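In response to the reviewer comment on reproducibility (Comment 2.3), we provide here a single inverse folding case reported in full, input and output, so that an independent group could reproduce the run without further information from us. The structure tokens appear first.
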């Protein structure tokens, strides 16, 4: 029993590590029926290692080649992880997943610790935009007959393709033929080409562009902000750390929240809304429809507003009324407590009992978790319970 306990502790510690090796990788997969990986290409951080593995066992062979304490980036990990996860010996900790996006998975493969991260969560742009963003060399135009690379064609690790058949799955046949001739050893004869060489050429090109763009982005962050992108999961976590270093910590009067205070305050945050006027479908054949999409709301709020300082205090019973809160709330341009105006902000659970103005796009958010008896859209002119901060409450009073 003692040996087992020690083994578990070793594995636990093994997954808390500073990466010693960084790789960038990409799978090529058949897209008919059950998607199957038939090729993987990967580069080391400095490009000194640039390899490809062909065949139905490419995922396991890739894992076999990884050294201990490796960090691997895929651009859209949510897709690529499907070909690796089933082969890992053990997944450690809780995978970081946001919605449908897999951002990070940590685990072991035959005793070797690996972290797999999603580069798209850091740079949320398509790979084809990287060359312009980071001033990179693009290489030949990509013309790839994805649907031709079917599971039937690739059975038994077949490497020979028929050019005339592949041309049925592309629009630019001339460029496809030129590419076959430009890739060393790709053309087998007049009507046959090497499936592996063609696939590997473009897969390697994508991996190179990912590696060069990501490394340049990392170097720029290190130079400008002294932040190592390898330490973070997403661009949001990087931005938060930058705020901590340059705003929160230097202030000296800002605090991290946890447990009940954090849970309560977080419920006052309402996500972005997507709705039609009055939540009603409308058909307009002659009039133009205005699609109002407000952007940059967070940076706008950060620039215009302020951050509440100090440790939050629990309200007393006599403070729990709208009249009291509005009477003692800071004025808009006030920075220090003065007389009766001693409250810089608040977070409360309110009960809306009356609605003065019925808006086409109401400010009221009816959370079904908080109001299970109400079967109404989230944004609706409905009396309900609602978590709000002081700004939201002021807006509700003024505009609704």
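Designed residues, in position order:
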């Amino acid at each position: 029993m003692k040996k087992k306990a020690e083994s578990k502790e070793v594995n636990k510690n093994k997954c808390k590590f500073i990466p010693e090796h960084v790789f960038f990788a990409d799978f090529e997969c058949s897209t008919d029926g059950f998607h199957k990986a038939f090729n993987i290409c990967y580069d080391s951080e400095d490009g000194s290692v640039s390899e490809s593995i062909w065949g139905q066992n490419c995922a396991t062979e890739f894992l076999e080649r990884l050294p201990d304490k490796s960090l691997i980036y895929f651009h859209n990990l949510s897709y690529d992880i499907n070909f690796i996860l089933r082969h890992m010996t053990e997944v450690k900790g809780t995978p970081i997943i946001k919605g449908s996006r897999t951002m990070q998975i940590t685990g072991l493969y035959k005793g070797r610790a690996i972290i797999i991260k999603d580069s798209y969560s850091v740079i949320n742009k398509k790979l084809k935009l990287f060359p312009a963003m980071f001033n990179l060399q693009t290489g030949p135009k990509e013309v790839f007959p994805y649907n031709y690379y079917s599971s039937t064609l690739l059975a038994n690790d077949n490497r020979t393709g028929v050019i005339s058949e592949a041309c049925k799955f592309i629009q630019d046949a001339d460029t496809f033929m030129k590419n076959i001739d430009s890739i060393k050893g790709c053309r087998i004869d007049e009507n046959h080409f090497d499936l592996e060489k063609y696939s590997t050429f473009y897969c390697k090109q994508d991996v190179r562009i990912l590696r060069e763009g990501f490394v340049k982005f990392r170097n720029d962050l290190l130079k400008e902000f002294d932040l190592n992108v390898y330490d973070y999961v997403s661009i949001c976590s990087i931005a938060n750390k930058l705020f901590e270093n340059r705003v929160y910590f230097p202030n000296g009067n800002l605090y991290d929240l946890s447990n009940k205070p954090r849970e309560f305050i977080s419920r006052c945050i309402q996500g972005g809304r997507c709705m039609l006027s009055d939540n009603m479908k409308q058909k307009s054949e002659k009039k133009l429809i205005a699609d109002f999409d407000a952007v940059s709301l967070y940076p706008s709020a950060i620039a215009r507003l302020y951050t509440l300082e100090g440790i939050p205090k629990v309200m007393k019973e006599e403070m729990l009324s709208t009249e009291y809160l509005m009477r003692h709330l800071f004025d808009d341009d006030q920075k220090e407590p003065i007389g009766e105006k001693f409250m810089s902000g608040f977070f409360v659970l309110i009960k809306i009992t009356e609605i003065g103005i019925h808006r086409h796009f109401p400010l009221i958010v009816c959370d079904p978790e908080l109001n299970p008896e109400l079967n109404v859209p989230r944004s609706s002119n409905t009396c309900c319970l609602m978590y709000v901060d002081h700004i939201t409450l002021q807006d509700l009073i003024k505009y609704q």
